[in-house]
Design brief:
Elements lengths: L13 E14 L4 E2 L3 E2 L3 E6 L2 E2 L2 E6 L2 E7 L2 E9 L4 H6 L3 E4 L2 E3 L7 E11 L3 E16 L18 E7 L2 E3 L2 E4 L1 E5 L6 H15 L4 E7 L13 E4 L2 E4 L11 E7 L9 H8 L5
Antiparallel strand pairs: 1-2, 1-3, 1-11, 4-8, 5-8, 6-7, 8-13, 9-10, 11-12, 12-13, 12-16, 14-15, 17-20, 18-19
């Protein structure tokens, strides 16, 4: 076994920051976290697990066993603002446009955000972690309003949230999992990570151009084939195939809403990385 080494170059790791926060209302009919909403203005996320307290058992004049209680998951989110969709999860209702009432039923939701992973050589560009959190409900938040003065401050809202663990095949139930981008090094692995992010954050409608292999008798105009000029695709004006040209067929992908996949689906999407 090699000698242990400390503080090697590129091994001074740290974590910082939070961005790309999304809240996902839980749909009790489909039993899924559908259609997430971007949460702007998040200033901090503090994960606060609790429980796992020790109960010591003594026998034969010694400490015989150490039993641990179940763990609980909680967290605090602070933000300058929040999406209207979260207000409904936070016990609000809007009976008339522009009017809001409070102390309504609180609803279950999921949450995700991204934190930065840095090191001594790449700084904040080294990587990031995706935090996926399930089964949350929020407690009422305090709002403190003060007069405008010569030291202006925006109100920072704060929510205490607790979670109910979801099932994970082969493991104990859990409220949270993280995905470390630095583990995805190959082109194939990075494509899997991108596929997960497209689910978490949604996708726009997109035109995809695929090279075609003409048989020689096609009419590019009637086939709606494209030619590429620089980085721009334009419809071909050729009525017969020019063997010196490359032609492309266009397909348009459908936009997808953001959603929060359950842990088993996450494992399926990312399965086999680094193989």
């Amino acid at each position: 076994m090699a000698k242990l080494l400390w503080d090697q170059t590129a091994e001074h790791f740290y974590e910082t920051g939070d961005d790309r926060a999304v809240v996902y209302p839980y749909n009790s009919t489909s039993k899924a976290y559908n259609k997430g909403y971007a949460w702007n203005g998040v200033t901090g996320v503090t994960e606060s697990p609790s429980g796992a307290d020790e109960t010591a058992l003594y026998a034969d004049n010694i400490k015989y066993l150490s039993l641990r209680s179940a763990e609980e998951f909680g967290m605090t989110v602070t933000a300058y603002t929040y999406p209207d969709e979260f207000a409904e999860l936070d016990g609000s209702a809007f009976p008339v446009k522009g009017v809001r009432i409070y102390q309504q039923a609180r609803k279950t939701f999921g949450f995700s955000y991204r934190s930065i992973v840095g090191n001594d050589t790449d700084a904040n560009d080294y990587g990031y972690k995706l935090h996926l959190i399930y089964g949350l409900t929020a407690s009422p938040s305090e709002r403190g309003y003060s007069t405008v003065n010569d030291s202006p401050e925006a109100i920072e809202f704060s929510w205490e949230m607790t979670g109910v663990p979801v099932a994970i095949t082969g493991y104990k139930n859990s409220c949270m999992l993280t995905v470390d981008s630095t583990a995805f090094t190959s082109t194939e692995d990075k494509a899997k990570l991108t596929a997960l992010e497209n689910i978490l954050w949604g996708t726009d409608e997109e035109d995809v151009y695929t090279e075609v292999t003409p048989a020689g008798s096609e009419n590019p105009v009637t086939k709606n084939w494209y030619e590429k000029t620089g980085n721009v695709y334009v419809l071909s004006a050729d009525t017969t195939v020019d063997s010196q040209k490359t032609y492309y067929a266009k397909t348009t992908t459908t936009a997808t809403d953001a959603r929060l996949p359950l842990p088993d689906e996450v494992f399926t999407i990312l399965g086999g990385i680094g193989g």
